Amino acid sequence: MQNKINLETRIGIKGILLTSAILILLLISFVLFGDPLDNWTNSFFQSEPSNLIASLVIGSLLSIDVIAPVPSSILSTAGGYFLGFIGGTIISLVGMTISCLIGYWIGAKFGRAAVLRLVDTKEISGFESLQKKYGDWIIIISRSVPLLAETSVLFAGIGRMKFNRFISMVTISNLGISMVYAAVGLIRRILIHFCLLLQLL
């Protein structure tokens, strides 16, 4: 029993260290590239792109959110603004889900090797059992939290969370988030048009 507690404690400490390292890398990317990308995104959408171009840009940028400092909330809201509620929801859902799949693949493909340098095989097994036990709720809760959202999908891959469960959880979470942002974007467009009409009266 004592060995099990010590094992979980070591896994917890090393898991925190690994999480901290990932968060630091993500924070560095946000500091270096966050503002320029935000500025470019804002100027792009001020140019009133066509639906096709808007869809391609929004979907493409959201799909690399796990590895780049993408302003996902702005992009998803812009989806609702330019493409309407249904179109904005779909393009946001697809882009965010692709990003989750990329993160899961990175974690599964490369994360395990990094973890093995910090912990032994027995500890890895314990970490994976904890991931299977709490991973689905962590995925759902963290999807709307910057940085934690990216970290959670990487750890889902590292912990080899069952893929069917993973894709179900991220799809449900991404759908809810996409619907909210698309609705906000659509409401913003309606309000802007309403204000313009009032000015003409």
UniProtKB/TrEMBL annotation:
GO terms for cellular component: plasma membrane. The chain crosses the membrane at residues 12-32, 82-106, 179-200. This is VTT domain-containing protein. The keyword Transmembrane helix applies. Keywords: Membrane, Transmembrane, Transmembrane helix. InterPro entries: DedA_domain (IPR051311), VTT_dom (IPR032816). It comes from Methanobacterium veterum. It comes from the Archaea. Residues 70-185 form the VTT domain.
